Amino acid sequence: MAKKRQKKRTQNYKKHLGQVPGALVYTGAKDNKQLQLHAFDYNEHDYKEADLSSVEEAFRFKDSETVTWFNLNGLNFINQIEKIGQHYNLHPLILEDIVNTSQRPKIDEYKDYFFIVLKMMYYDESEKIVSEQVSMVMGKNYVLTFQEAEGDVFNGLRERIRHKKGRIRDEGSDYLLYALIDAIVDHYYAIIETMGNKIEDLEDDLFTGLTQEEISQQIQNLKREILKIRRAIFPLREIINRLEKSEGPLIEEKTTHYFRDVYDHIIQVTENIDIYREMIWSLMDMYMTTISNKMNEVMKVLTIMATIFIPLTFIAGVYGMNFKNMPELENPDGYYIVWIVMIAIFIGMVVYFKRKKWL
Amino acid sequence: MAKKRQKKRTQNYKKHLGQVPGALVYTGAKDNKQLQLHAFDYNEHDYKEADLSSVEEAFRFKDSETVTWFNLNGLNFINQIEKIGQHYNLHPLILEDIVNTSQRPKIDEYKDYFFIVLKMMYYDESEKIVSEQVSMVMGKNYVLTFQEAEGDVFNGLRERIRHKKGRIRDEGSDYLLYALIDAIVDHYYAIIETMGNKIEDLEDDLFTGLTQEEISQQIQNLKREILKIRRAIFPLREIINRLEKSEGPLIEEKTTHYFRDVYDHIIQVTENIDIYREMIWSLMDMYMTTISNKMNEVMKVLTIMATIFIPLTFIAGVYGMNFKNMPELENPDGYYIVWIVMIAIFIGMVVYFKRKKWL
Amino acid sequence: MAKKRQKKRTQNYKKHLGQVPGALVYTGAKDNKQLQLHAFDYNEHDYKEADLSSVEEAFRFKDSETVTWFNLNGLNFINQIEKIGQHYNLHPLILEDIVNTSQRPKIDEYKDYFFIVLKMMYYDESEKIVSEQVSMVMGKNYVLTFQEAEGDVFNGLRERIRHKKGRIRDEGSDYLLYALIDAIVDHYYAIIETMGNKIEDLEDDLFTGLTQEEISQQIQNLKREILKIRRAIFPLREIINRLEKSEGPLIEEKTTHYFRDVYDHIIQVTENIDIYREMIWSLMDMYMTTISNKMNEVMKVLTIMATIFIPLTFIAGVYGMNFKNMPELENPDGYYIVWIVMIAIFIGMVVYFKRKKWL
Amino acid sequence: MAKKRQKKRTQNYKKHLGQVPGALVYTGAKDNKQLQLHAFDYNEHDYKEADLSSVEEAFRFKDSETVTWFNLNGLNFINQIEKIGQHYNLHPLILEDIVNTSQRPKIDEYKDYFFIVLKMMYYDESEKIVSEQVSMVMGKNYVLTFQEAEGDVFNGLRERIRHKKGRIRDEGSDYLLYALIDAIVDHYYAIIETMGNKIEDLEDDLFTGLTQEEISQQIQNLKREILKIRRAIFPLREIINRLEKSEGPLIEEKTTHYFRDVYDHIIQVTENIDIYREMIWSLMDMYMTTISNKMNEVMKVLTIMATIFIPLTFIAGVYGMNFKNMPELENPDGYYIVWIVMIAIFIGMVVYFKRKKWL
Amino acid sequence: MAKKRQKKRTQNYKKHLGQVPGALVYTGAKDNKQLQLHAFDYNEHDYKEADLSSVEEAFRFKDSETVTWFNLNGLNFINQIEKIGQHYNLHPLILEDIVNTSQRPKIDEYKDYFFIVLKMMYYDESEKIVSEQVSMVMGKNYVLTFQEAEGDVFNGLRERIRHKKGRIRDEGSDYLLYALIDAIVDHYYAIIETMGNKIEDLEDDLFTGLTQEEISQQIQNLKREILKIRRAIFPLREIINRLEKSEGPLIEEKTTHYFRDVYDHIIQVTENIDIYREMIWSLMDMYMTTISNKMNEVMKVLTIMATIFIPLTFIAGVYGMNFKNMPELENPDGYYIVWIVMIAIFIGMVVYFKRKKWL
Asked: Which residues form a coiled coil (chains A, B, C, D, E) (predicted)?
């Protein structure tokens, strides 16, 4: 499995290496069979919604005064993405970044729009962390979102648009951007919750359940997951901060409070991550202590047994010698006296170990 | 118990996940049966105090020139909180944050008021750290405080208002805000004091009292408590700093010295926390050393006993052999000579170990 | 003793907790029986010096053009301190800070004066670190100093004023402030020197002298002392820096070079503290290594003895068996042959261990 | 081999020590036999390419409006480099830095050009990291590159110029500089990928393959490689940042987006390096745990064997004694009774160890 | 030796403690018997050089337009230094710092000159690090240097002045200052090179050569040396930075490029120091692992020997019992059967350990 992962990574890098800047190459693993295009167009009075079969259909929404949200699933349909790029006049580097799924989360400010790359994260069925790239372009009156595959993260938001829940229908594209980011950040709570449970479970297992190799492996896995999550979530702080501080006309004054709120959530998530990180390192220490304690106990058992019986065995050995002239052997009570001596030594030793609190 | 905690947390997150931004959901655990509302209205000459039965009663204080302090206990009475929000014209995000008790301490500056979230912390009877959220809204002439449950933290302050102790009655709402924060920060000293005592007790127990598993568990608990306290207290530095540096009309020049004073207290508390943190890590090291020392001692006992008796037992074994022709056995003094040899070896070994300082 | 310290600390916090801000409560442990008041009044031509019996006597110096240095020993005389506060128009928080000896070193800038809190540190006779609070108020033409008890730290400075040594008599109150701080900082060198000696002594003892529990205890004590010293000295960097950078009329341009010089000393002291800190942690590591080495040696002795004699004892055991038919036993040279075999095994083992460098 | 490396380094330092600033001394190890000079001259319409035999031939390109890229392989040809320096009016320190291959990556801004030093890094056949210095001078209309030896890192770029792939032919020398740096940064991905594979391989080997000394050595090697890579790559962040933020006329506005893109790549690479660094330290911990676990297992085997047989051997010893009067020996069933007792002890011990989970 | 060092240090501090600021006390250990004064006076056309017998002779160079470099060896000649101070109008604190050799490297900017304190570092014959203070005063047209004792670090520079090598004769006193600092920084390379060799040697010795106590001692020494070097070199970064950024008339624009170059060298040296620092800590870890590995091996030998022979010895013990009725003993083949059983057990054990990879 380790082999598999490393091969996959190699492949991605290879794709990237030596390629012309500006060339579009999808570096992800998901080859969607069909392109999914979904468009929303709404204002406070009305909304339109459509599943489209080609990107050209979406362009009619562009110049309307209403807010347009255009979502694309399937980054392997490079041609379609290029068409969108041309239509919305996107910089070539943006298109390159959309399809290169090994991007770090970031924000790029262009004259007419923001480009934002985020990471969706969730645990799959086999309890492994999966990270999917979501790219967003937000301009006046429109937001474009690009996902690797269909997920349900934005479904709640869609319902809110359809049924005019909350204030989303009353606001512009900046509030839509906020709502999209908020939906992704909300899902990070599930990640850190699962991570917290994993740590607590492992903590319980330290003293009881698993073999030492399993524990060692699990601690290592947790460390690696934490590193992966950190890398996906930490850059968000700067992204949100720059959106909040942005002075252009794209983000309205009243929306910055909402971005401030997301920022607080991000800080909370990253603080939790750092706490878990520290707890995992602490687990490692506890585990080392547990091992040392166990070894200590093993040593005590050995020492007690050996220390009690070694002198007794010596005494028995002495009277097993075959010397002609050994007066004790002739003594009719000799055998009983030896037993008394040996029992006395035994008791003495036990008392000694009791005092040392080894027993 | 670990299971219980994790379930509770899961629940809270679930409540949050996918909810419409702006919707009020109380995420705490305390379901107060009755709403407690308490209002103060004072200036240098006079004061009024009342336990109210509904929030509407409080609104008559609003427009007076006097300073109004309105305290609400019971965050599960969402309707009442919404009414206050409407009356005082609070931003929807503020109401959401008041009832969401998993907030990180923070300050939000709005045009007409400050919104501040703090954490009350105390050890309950079972010596566990409890953290309760206190939210404050401070505007011109009024301060609103929202608590999860009735506590006695502000009682001293109430007495000072009633009996005109100190300068509180002579000052405005900014000084009241200072006094409220100061009351909470003062309680942090009790926390760090208890934490300090716990560490010192554990330090004494390292060499004597508890079993190794208990010590290991207690160190882990202390680490977790420190992390929890840090998370609740560290953001306060920035909060107070921003209040002190605030340039709007809400905080008067002369009050900034008082905020500076609280700031110094916070720094003192956080420094103590960091010192305790370092001491706990250091305890872990000492504990590891203690274990190693104990193992060393066990090993020495085993080694001394084994090393002394192994050659003696060998000698006894030799003369227990049944060879026909063993001249020593025929020697009438043979037995005594062997004893002398064995005693000599014994003494030699003891001297050797004395020199090595193992005895 | 640990108990005693923790009780004292509890007491101090209790005193503080719930007290009206602005109320004066002395939180130190030293109850001076008599108030000591000492005043200096000097310019380049002349100086007056007096031991006063009440603070009122000091007030006549206030309005003179000459530089006045007024020193008070005994923070438990709260009334007197309050009188000074009224006379010099000091902010209530300053008076509170003067008598609250658990202050962190700090500087507060007021309109007409600076308020500075420092920590005098020295090792007492029982080699424990003692920290005493020294507060200073520096205004135009005067410096007030408040000490817990009479110390000799400023005696050198007094001599210099009396005998016009150096430039102190030619300069204003800002130079006097510098000279006072410099005197305190100079004493920190004695602290770090003692600390350095302690570390070197302990380093020597690691391999020879003390029992393992004593070493463990001493390392822990050193760590705690370092933490205490750091806490007292580190804030000074910011204090001096702000004095140097101060732009008001209180600090003259030409004096900033002197503050820069003190600043360099502070940096030197803090660097030494950090180095000692690192050395103590390093000591801990060395100590762990020493323990492991000792255990290794113990194990080797046991292993060598056991490994050599176990096969020999087995051989002796074999020929101690009582089988009827054991041809070797009948052989008249059997006993000698067995001896030869056993000696050969012995030599073989010794050679083996020599090669492994265990002997 | 360690000796060899240290000698080489010594030599380089010696060369540098005491030399006149401004004197050109090549400090690398590669003595190219022949100087390789390669020139490109292009605009959007046309391009010229030439392998030159002397630097003078290159000078004719200088004053053209077209973009000139002049590449030199072989830093030991000091004379030629000096000629270029004179022709392009380079500061003496630049020439010194070009041939001193122990430079740290850096950027120096001069009035008419940028001077940039980078490190090419790759693993050679024996899996050792090789670092080669590449210096670049970028002025209006020209870029000069200086390499230690011929590599293939810029071949892709040359193809793009020849066949007008991408936008390189449409842009100026700033884009060429970007493309050169991008080519080098792209190669860092191969480094971190190999590093990642090495760590994963070692992780697998921890529990199975290698001897402990080999593992210890490999961990040490990985640590050193990480340190080396960090040192070569981390300064790049500042270099790119300064190029992006540069306000002179050399870097056009539109090119800054491309530098921003390279910056993101650098951040990604450095983040990976830090993650690997943490993973290596974590490996060390795991390895220590593995050793402790193994020792624990060894101790258990010894303890079980010794503890079971020591009492049995003692019993056998007792009945091997030669006392005249030992009634058990006369008992015809004595021998069988002793066997029963010994088997009972044996079973009791095994049950005891099963319960302790040692078996 | 540790005693000696600590006494020396104590002495230095004592000298400093309680001294009047501004009083000149030489705190170094070197009492030069004779004052060495050396003066250079040069411009691009000519140079004068003289060994002077008194500082007064030097003053005639002062007001010339030519660059004057005046070097003094022997800080114990306090009178002479005071005369220079008066003549060049140096601030009293500068004179104090020149003779106080426990200074931290620093730069002080005065109106007419810079004052710089640096540390010369080298390994003496007994491989101990020696640090000597070099102070410099650079004003318009002159540089004064003060050394503890005659060294050869500036000899190369003197040659360059005499023979007009490089550009030194063409430049002003700022370039001379650069050249002096550059000469000192160049010598740091020798330090880090020796340090690097020491680390590599120790690394080789870990697995072979030295006793464990020696290794432990050497690691500790290396740590201390690194700390000492860091303390001497790290402040240089800020010093050079401030020279480079200095805006006064003393440093010409064109010289800043040279200071930038020295700055790069300093960064390179400090990076190497940090790498060595990390390598030493890593060595400590490796050493701990080595110890654990060795203990593991010792334990294995013991366990194998004991585990193989303990059951065999038990069997021999059984047939050494003296029961009347032991049928096996009467069996004429009993002895041989027992041997077969014992050999079978032996082989079984060996196979078992082979499978566990302990053999």
From this structure: none
